[in-house]
């Protein structure tokens, strides 16, 4: 299935990084800064966003998805400021987002739901059927495409979530805990899909699972208490840890080492 | 509106249910429950205006139900926790709201139209008065259903609680019932202030078939319903608290404009359809345009009755037969005339009779016009009809009870026969004098009734 090439696809990019945050602060609730002075630049590739619970991963992803507005600092997505007021209509067409708590219309079939989301993402009308079919196939749900959403297992629902996120061929793909509910075989398939997507897309994957990062990410962003702790390749993360650090794998030891080093692993067990 | 997305909503929203609810509920009520909507002259399939009014009056139930269904649909985003995902999409929220509202409006209009087609086919088959004056009544009804659905969706989305749909349904049901209009008075009159009552989309039941709604009513209700629908739509599309507050503006504006336009007086709400009430005549027999189909059957027996009346009463005999168009309260004395035999097709003795039987009924009505009204809702009185039986028998020579009324023919005979025998025993001059007295008493409708003028007829 081919898609018509639009002017936007052919235009040279006017930005160096798909995501660029400078001194980014995002307030949640009353006065807690969930993201507190973040400097981050992300380009094409798969970026694993790691960090303990409450580190602010979800808030960061929501800010990147233009769902919450930054409190301070600047945030540029695809060369466009995502900080100010406004609808970011053109920008949002090029973002794919799977929220941590993925809600869906239970009475819709898989295909109807993905098609509905494609419409909301303003995919050109003529491209919709093809884009929907491709997205559903990519998450391996082609044989369940005409089943109602309420009849699906948790893992399948998650895959529909991924399908709707990629249906508009986004330039920035934001996946918050995409592997929750996937069984090991599905996780393997998902990692392949991530690698494939990362070739031409800036993919940000938030996860608890360090092994997901090792297998699929070109880049690791370690995040704690709203600040960047580490950014580098998985190998560099592994190199940061030694035998004295907690963990079953080099990556886990590197993760523990960096969090311990930053003194930010309080309140954990 | 995107066709593919509209088709998805058509399958997956409450739209098909709302569309089916309207005709199914309405037809079940109209056909399965016996009520005035099934009674001859006021039947819902008898005349176009009656069809429009009866189907509109069902909004007493349909409007709250559709409002509740809309609210159920309005809960969808909240129940499915789609808010987060929807916020991240570029398409403006009102596109989504418009597609959903559009599909529901479509099915509601289709459902209501189906109801009108079912009724309209029977109206057409029955030779009713053809006109389009009824159309605004039904258009406002359709608009009311759409407004209810959209308002329900907006309120359901704004107050996303499982209690919202039932609470809205009950509240709307109380609203439409408190603001009901009683059909008993000559002009249907509400208990509450008239303008307020007209904010309810339901209308009075049909009793006087010549009544229709006036143009200011259509206009005012349209303004009010458009305001309601606009508020519902704004609530459905609003993303911010400010948007939700601003959403109240259309309904406020709509209600202010509506209250300026709507008539404060019931008499300017329900008005006689003058075109339908215009007389069409065949010789000396006249009926309203509305009942033109009955004229041919009435003309022959009518002419004969007029001739016989002239023979009986001489110069004082009525010279024409005319359908009564005067509005009156329920159980109120019907219109009287010295020069015309006034007929009401709601009176089964006349409305259901044909040929000789009709001549007899018209003679009775001409000699002793009934004081107690007879219609589908009013039984008339035994003494009135017995007086008519005897008066007609005096002209025709044999006593026969008048069928088609609430007064049982056998009991009529039982009551009339002794009086008839004594009356027949009187000398002819005395008989004529008594009949004159009957005629005068019946026209006067005083304390002394028509039957009291006959020997042994005084009420026991």
TrEMBL record, chain B:
<feature type="transmembrane region" description="Helical">
    <location>
        <begin position="131"/>
        <end position="151"/>
    </location>
</feature>
<feature type="transmembrane region" description="Helical">
    <location>
        <begin position="219"/>
        <end position="238"/>
    </location>
</feature>
<feature type="transmembrane region" description="Helical">
    <location>
        <begin position="53"/>
        <end position="72"/>
    </location>
</feature>
<keyword id="KW-1133">Transmembrane helix</keyword>
<feature type="transmembrane region" description="Helical">
    <location>
        <begin position="93"/>
        <end position="119"/>
    </location>
</feature>
<protein>
    <submittedName>
        <fullName>Membrane protein</fullName>
    </submittedName>
</protein>
<keyword id="KW-0812">Transmembrane</keyword>
<feature type="transmembrane region" description="Helical">
    <location>
        <begin position="14"/>
        <end position="33"/>
    </location>
</feature>
<feature type="transmembrane region" description="Helical">
    <location>
        <begin position="163"/>
        <end position="180"/>
    </location>
</feature>
<feature type="transmembrane region" description="Helical">
    <location>
        <begin position="245"/>
        <end position="262"/>
    </location>
</feature>
<keyword id="KW-0472">Membrane</keyword>
């Amino acid at each position: 299935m081919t898609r018509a090439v639009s002017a936007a696809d052919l235009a040279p990019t006017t930005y160096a990084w798909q995501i660029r945050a400078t001194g980014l602060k995002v307030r949640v609730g009353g006065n807690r800064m969930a993201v507190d002075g973040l400097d981050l630049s992300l380009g094409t590739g798969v970026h694993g966003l790691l960090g303990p619970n409450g580190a602010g991963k979800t808030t960061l992803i929501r800010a990147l998805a233009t769902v919450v507005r930054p409190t301070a600092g600047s945030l540029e997505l695809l060369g466009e400021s995502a900080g100010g007021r406004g609808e970011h209509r053109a920008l949002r067409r090029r973002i794919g987002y799977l929220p941590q708590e993925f809600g869906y219309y239970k009475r819709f079939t898989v295909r109807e739901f993905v098609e509905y989301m494609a419409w909301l993402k303003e995919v050109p009308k003529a491209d919709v059927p093809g884009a929907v079919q491709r997205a559903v196939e990519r998450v391996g749900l082609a044989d369940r495409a005409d089943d109602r959403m309420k009849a699906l297992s948790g893992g399948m629902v998650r895959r529909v979530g991924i399908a709707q996120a990629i249906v508009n061929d986004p330039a920035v793909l934001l996946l918050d805990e995409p592997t929750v509910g996937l069984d090991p075989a599905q996780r393997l398939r998902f990692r392949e899909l991530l690698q494939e997507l990362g070739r031409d897309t800036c993919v940000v994957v938030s996860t608890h699972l360090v092994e997901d990062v090792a297998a699929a990410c070109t880049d690791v962003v370690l995040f704690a208490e709203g600040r960047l702790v580490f950014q580098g390749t998985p190998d560099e993360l592994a190199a940061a840890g030694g035998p004295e650090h907690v963990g079953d794998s080099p990556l886990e030891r590197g993760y523990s080492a960096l969090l311990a080093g930053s003194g930010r692993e309080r309140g954990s067990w | 509106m995107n066709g593919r997305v509209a088709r998805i909503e058509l399958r997956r929203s409450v739209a098909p249910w709302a569309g089916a609810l309207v005709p199914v509920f309405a037809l079940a009520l109209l056909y399965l429950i016996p009520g005035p909507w099934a009674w001859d002259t006021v039947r819902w399939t008898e005349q176009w205006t009656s069809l429009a009014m009866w189907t509109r009056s069902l909004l007493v139930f349909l409007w709250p139900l559709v409002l509740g269904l809309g609210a159920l649909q309005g809960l969808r985003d909240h129940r499915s926790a789609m808010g987060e995902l929807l916020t991240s999409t570029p398409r403006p929220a009102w596109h989504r709201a418009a597609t959903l509202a559009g599909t529901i409006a479509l099915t509601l209009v289709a459902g209501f139209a189906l109801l009108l087609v079912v009724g309209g086919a029977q109206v057409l088959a029955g030779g009713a008065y053809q006109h389009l004056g009824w159309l605004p009544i039904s258009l406002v009804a359709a608009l009311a259903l759409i407004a209810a659905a959209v308002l329900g969706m907006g309120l359901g989305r704004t107050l996303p609680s499982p209690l919202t749909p039932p609470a809205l349904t009950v509240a709307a049901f109380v609203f439409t019932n408190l603001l009901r209009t009683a059909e008993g008075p000559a002009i249907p009159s509400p208990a509450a202030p008239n303008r307020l009552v007209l904010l309810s989309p339901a209308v009075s039941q049909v009793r006087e078939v010549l009544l229709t709604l006036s143009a200011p009513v259509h206009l005012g209700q349209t303004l009010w319903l458009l305001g309601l629908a606009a508020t519902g739509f704004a609530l459905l599309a609003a993303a911010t608290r400010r948007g939700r507050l601003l959403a109240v503006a259309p309904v406020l504006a709509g209600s202010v404009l509506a209250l300026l336009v709507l008539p404060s007086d019931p008499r300017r709400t329900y008005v006689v359809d003058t075109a339908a009430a215009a007389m069409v005549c065949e010789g000396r027999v006249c009926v309203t345009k509305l009942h033109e189909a009955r004229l041919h059957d009435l003309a022959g027996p009518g002419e004969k009755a007029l001739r016989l009346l002239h023979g009986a009463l001489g110069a004082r005999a009525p010279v024409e037969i005319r359908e009564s168009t005067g509005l009156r309260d329920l159980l109120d004395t019907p219109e009287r005339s010295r020069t015309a035999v006034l007929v009401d097709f709601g009176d089964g003795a006349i409305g259901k009779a044909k040929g000789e039987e009709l001549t007899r009924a018209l003679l009775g009505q001409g000699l002793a016009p009934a004081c107690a009204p007879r219609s589908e809702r009013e039984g008339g009185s035994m003494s009135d009809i017995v007086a008519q039986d005897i008066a007609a028998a005096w002209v025709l020579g044999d006593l026969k009870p008048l069928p088609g009324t609430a007064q049982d023919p056998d009991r009529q005979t039982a009551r009339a026969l002794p009086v008839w025998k004594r009356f027949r025993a009187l000398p002819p001059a005395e008989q004529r004098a008594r009949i004159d007295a009957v005629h005068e008493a019946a026209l006067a409708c005083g304390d002394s009734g028509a039957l009291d003028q006959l020997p042994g007829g005084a009420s026991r």
